[in-house]
Amino acid sequence: MHELSLAERLVELMEQAAIDQSFSRIRVIELEVGSLAGVDAEALRFALEAAIAGTLADGASLRLQTPTGTARCQDCDRDIAIDTRHDPCPQCGGHRLTITGGDCLLLKHLEVE
User: Fold this and answer.
1) pTM (2 decimals)?
2) Is the confidence at residue 97, as pLDDT, over 60?
3) In this structure, are residues 31 and 60 in contact, taking their beta carbons and an 8 Å threshold?
4) Total of domains in the chain
5) In which domain, by residue range, is 83 found?
6) CA gap 85, 105 in Å, rounded
7) CATH number of the domain enclosing 53
8) What is the rounded distance in angstroms from the CA atom of residue 28 to the CA atom of residue 50?
9) H/E segment holding residue 67
10) What separation in angstroms does the CA of 47 have from each of 2, 3, 55?
């Protein structure tokens, strides 16, 4: 389960931010987990809740945004929504797609004290 290692890395990033920006507690963690990011959002939530125990983020509220995947079809020149990287274009059936969104894992926002 690579979500646990991702959660541990997120805790490290938050702890470093606390040092750099002089805050002592995290109240809210806002993450964006795109549907094409290769991360199970609920497994990450579970792993992060375990990883923040006993840290400056212990008890923090976790907000997950899960944007859908988007792509540009090179065959019909349209912007489309996709569920997986292997989906065909729903307009023309083409497979020459350039991913344009929903493929990131981002630590978007921290609400701190």
Assistant:
1) 0.86
2) yes
3) no
4) 1
5) 2-112
6) 16
7) 3.30.2320.80
8) 15
9) none
10) 10, 6, 14
Judge whether residue 6 has pLDDT over 80.
Answer: yes
Whole-angstrom Cα distance, residue 96 to residue 113? 47
**Residue type for position 75:** D
Question: Whole-angstrom Cα distance, residue 51 to residue 46?
Answer: 9
pLDDT, the chain, mean: 96
Distances in whole angstroms, Cα of residue 58 to Cα of each of 6, 16, 36: 17, 16, 29
Tell me how crowded residue 5 is: count the other CB atoms within 10 A of its CB. Answer: 11
Distance CA(104)–CA(37), nearest Å, equals: 5
- Tell whether the model's pLDDT for residue 94 goes beyond 80: yes
Contact 103, 14 (CB under 8 A): no
The pLDDT assigned to 1 comes to: 56
Bridge-based pairing state of the strands 26-33 and 61-65: parallel
At residue 50, the pLDDT reads 96
Across the range 32-61, mean pLDDT stands at: 96
